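Hi R.,

Here's the chain you asked about this morning:
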Amino acid sequence: MLTEQRQEMILQMLEEKGSITVGEIREKFDSSESTIRRDLNYLDSIGKLTKVFGGAVLRENRFITKELSVSQKSLVNIEAKTRVAQYAAQLIEADDFVYIDAGTTTECMISYITERNATYVTNAVAHAKILANAGFKVILVGGELKGTTEAVVGVQAVVTIQGYHFSKGFFGTNGISIKSGYTTPDYSEALVKKTALHNCQKCYILADNTKFGETSSVTFADIGDAQIITDDVPSEHYRSLNNIITV
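And the predicted structure, written out as tokens:
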């Protein structure tokens, strides 16, 4: 087997498992330990993986700086978002004081909400309109409207949310990373998310499987600050986490 072929297959193993040991690679390719270590050293040097003692782990280097519009996002991973949204909506109980973050998955969730003896607070104009038209009690947070995500942000929004204490909160995210936590491209939106999440008794991140391993510009919470509701966990790198609900 050519060196390039072996290295490509090592990367495929890593993508599937999230982490691999030198022993696992030797067993698969029947190569010497020195050969495998040379492969790992080379792949680490070109940024394809991170070499650790006894093996390697997936390098999280997918960095997002540009945010899609709401209309663009609404066309992506529809089936996965629907499964996540349906499960999340069932978690709302009578007398809950619920925060619903801006985002296409949280908007999808609204279609499946049935609990009318709850109060809903949101920083998304579209979310508030859907909830109000359906007869739910809804509070729209005031502030500056961000065109791309149709989210209300800014100082006024943060100050308002600081005065609330939510029983449950449902949040969207642009990326999930063990190192960087939950991230979003915009600082103002991150601050609103961070403030609301801090004031929730129970926090849920609604994310399809494509968000894992992605990192955006601003962290709004650490990986352990909320439970993740997702359709699938694409890598063993994340399957060891105890705060993931797969639906």
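The mean pLDDT is 89.

Let me know if you need anything else.
M.
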